[in-house]
Amino acid sequence: MREGTPKAIRLEDYRPPVYWVDRVALAFDLDADTTRVQARLEVRRNPASSDPNDLILNGEDLELQRIRLDGRPLEPARYRLEADRLILPGVPERFTLETEVLIHPAANARLEGLYLSEGMLCTQCEAEGFRRITYFPDRPDVMARYRVTLKADKTRYPVLLANGNLLDEGMLDDGRHFAVWEDPFPKPSYLFALVAGRLEKRTDTFTTMSGREVLLELYVESHDLDKCDHALDSLKRAMAWDERKYGREYDLDRYMIVAVSHFNMGAMENKGLNLFNSQCVLARPETATDDDFERVLAVVGHEYFHNWTGNRITLRDWFQLSLKEGLTVFREQQFCADEASKAVRRIEDVNLLRTRQFPEDEGPLAHPVRPDSYIEINNFYTMTVYEKGAEVVRMLCTLLGWERFRKGMDLYFERHDGQAVTCEDFLKAMEDANGVDLSQFLRWYTQAGTPRLEVACHYDAKARTFQLNINQWCPPTPGQPEKEPFLIPVTVVLLDPEGREIPLQLAGEAAPQGSERVLALSEAHHAFRFVNVERPPVLSILRDFSAPVKLMLDRPLDQWHFLWRHDTDPFNRWDAGQTLISQVLLAQIDRNAAVLDPHLVEGFAPLLQQPLADRAYTALLLQLPEEDYLAEQMDVIDVDGIHRVRETARRELAAALRDDWLSCYHAHHRPEEWADTSAAAIGRRRLKNTCLSYLASLDDPASHDLALQQYRTARCMSDQLAALRAIVCDAHPAKTETLADFYDRWRHEPLVIDKWFALQAADPSSGALERVRKLLAHPDFDLKNPNRVRAVLGVFARQNPVHFHARDGSGYQLLADWLLNLDRINPQVAARLAQPLTAWRRYDPQRARRMHQALERLRQADISKDLFEIVTKALE
Ligand code: 0A1
Ligand code: ZN
């Protein structure tokens, strides 16, 4: 059992800082074992604070060497050193504070603060890593100007980078060199960064809309220089897009990105010096899949967009995290939708929301988009804060319309540039720019849970009216038994029997006003009556997924089938198919039978025979609902039943439409396009590989040959991996040797080897637990590398439900064993990987008991506060 219970921090306890820090001068004597950090802070009393005048600085794992106030050494009686704070009572109104500390980067396996990755020194300060570098008021509302001097051995660390502009560099005695960087923009400490290492770079330039030339630099290890083009191209596209779409220009003369192998998250938006998990920045067709290429575009865009939404305008406190993350994810989504297929990106986003965020909202870790308390802020980089937060911003945009939303954004930028603000400030800018009242909308930030929309409709042929009744309610979540109604935009269209949109006229309106309506629900019950509806229509509702809610709408399968073929909204068309197939599969689980439903074949056949122009979208229309999505719809999750009916459906569809799959495969197989990453070529590959995956389920010599042939001849990773997946997951006779071949081919490419690990960890065939044990014992498995850990433990727990949820609890036990090891190394990643266990209430009593036992075991151990928070909340 850990000692003492960690304390929760509450939003309601927020106090403005007692002291501001205007300027910071940092000097680093860099060394992997021991780095010396000298800090000089210009401190000033905040007149707006009435709190006692102690100066409280955060600090963790620091060895204090010296401390001076206004140039004079401070006697020990004038300060108090605690485990995680340095307190100076009775300091003047304005003074300079100098400290000197020692830190140990090579021993820092948490990857927060200054740490070592493949011989490179780098930092990660969000959320509270800066306190592991020096004593500082480490909170986002203290914004300062930084000047940073880096000194290091020139052979080991020839490249020395920090935020902002390079002021000076040169040699020191004894083979060391130095660089001085200055960031002209005041920033919170979480945006501080430095990098020192033996790195190579690729460069480019971007001319901004006002004609300034910005130098773009991507720093990587030398063997990765061939994987930089796509990220640089993505960066230029993002910069141009933010100018076009939001009128936002980049503000420094240099934009640097560094690829890091050991990274807890995807990437980090440090001012002028982004640090990226190598997975999210390195890509070339031979080693990265089309999905990877899309991810790089998205993450490069995301970090770039933070320069305005996060950096120029930052957060008052960490409770406001979604103010920067939800907004930036929304901007990233818009960017990717504009750059590639809008429909595909929307479907992917909603899929992620429904398979990952909805379960979060239903479970013990449910929290509002703006949480009101936390123990460890790192646990709040969640699907709710990011993905639901983006949906909340999207709803604002839907309610206001793009033009007015943009006006609100302009005012937000103008009013708050250089400030640390709150979600209320954001809504206020939207309100003031448009003369609207958004007070009810704030509930999306303060109330947790996924609202339900109960929809009933009735067509009256005689009166020629279409009646639409909608009720909203939201289930209780921890600490929030009752909810007030949300303001929900519901986009609707009525389709006539030919699939054409009908002009819409509500009772009381003089004439029809267009065919698509955004209905704004503000009450628990609403009734809408559309008049002059000549023929019985089919309702297309919640178009483009206009709100993050669960739709409860009972209607005959035929109507879903109609929408699957005819809906004019690409998202809803796809979703109708998902609903239809889900209903068929869930009914089969109930009946414990699996007979292929004719609706499925009828839906799939025309798509295969005449694919739509957007091939990637067609591939999505041909996809069965994910196991997680089916699980989400069951009261008690039947993992075995879900897997069984889904696999059976896949095989039966493969058999019933075999010739169609095959001809569609051949029509889209263009090996010569291997290096083409245009949307069209990606679309063709996606459709072809979807065909391959169905065919592979047939488990016969012809499809075995097809998969092996593709594996052997593939020149790009998308095709090679798709073939390998077909071979691994469908009991191919050449499975073992092909896996061995893949490993041999790629043993020197860690990001590809991650895929090799992940593929096997997700393999649903029998003996999975043993295989996972072997992977964990493999010489290339490394508990210190989060990418590798996620590839094995993360994938096993999330993407191999049948075996992770083995009835005897062996999967849970294995995870718990490894979490205990991992937690001692990297608590942040351990806490994240523990989350699949927290859904124990959703399973049958036997599984629930075993999951509970695994959590109990973790709670009894000496665990970090990160893991403690997850485990105790799950057990409450
Ligand atoms: N702000 C980053 C995400 C991030 C958060 C925490 C990190 O380390 C603890 C690292 C990155 C983003 O949204 O991209
Ligand atoms: Zn972000």
UniProtKB/TrEMBL annotation:
Its cofactor is Zn(2+). Aminopeptidase N is involved in the degradation of intracellular peptides generated by protein breakdown during normal growth as well as in response to nutrient starvation. Gene3D superfamilies: 2.60.40.1840, 3.30.2010.30, Neutral Protease Domain 2, Peptidase M1, alanyl aminopeptidase, C-terminal domain, tricorn interacting facor f3 domain. One of its GO terms (biological process) is proteolysis. Keywords: Aminopeptidase, Hydrolase, Metal-binding, Metalloprotease, Protease, Zinc. Its EC number is 3.4.11.2. Belongs to the peptidase M1 family. The keyword Signal does not apply. It comes from Methylomarinovum caldicuralii. Residues 449-552 form the Peptidase M1 alanyl aminopeptidase Ig-like fold domain. It comes from the Bacteria. Residues 559-876 form the Peptidase M1 alanyl aminopeptidase C-terminal domain. The lineage of its organism: Bacteria, Pseudomonadati, Pseudomonadota, Gammaproteobacteria, Methylococcales. The keyword Zinc applies. CDD domains: M1_APN (cd09600). It catalyses: Release of an N-terminal amino acid, Xaa-|-Yaa- from a peptide, amide or arylamide. Xaa is preferably Ala, but may be most amino acids including Pro (slow action). When a terminal hydrophobic residue is followed by a prolyl residue, the two may be released as an intact Xaa-Pro dipeptide. Residues 108-191 form the Aminopeptidase N-like N-terminal domain. NCBIfam families: pepN_proteo. This is Aminopeptidase N. GO terms for molecular function: alanyl aminopeptidase activity; metallopeptidase activity; zinc ion binding. Pfam families: DUF3458 (PF11940), DUF3458_C (PF17432), Peptidase_M1 (PF01433), Peptidase_M1_N (PF17900). Residues 231-443 form the Peptidase M1 membrane alanine aminopeptidase domain. PANTHER family: PUROMYCIN-SENSITIVE AMINOPEPTIDASE.
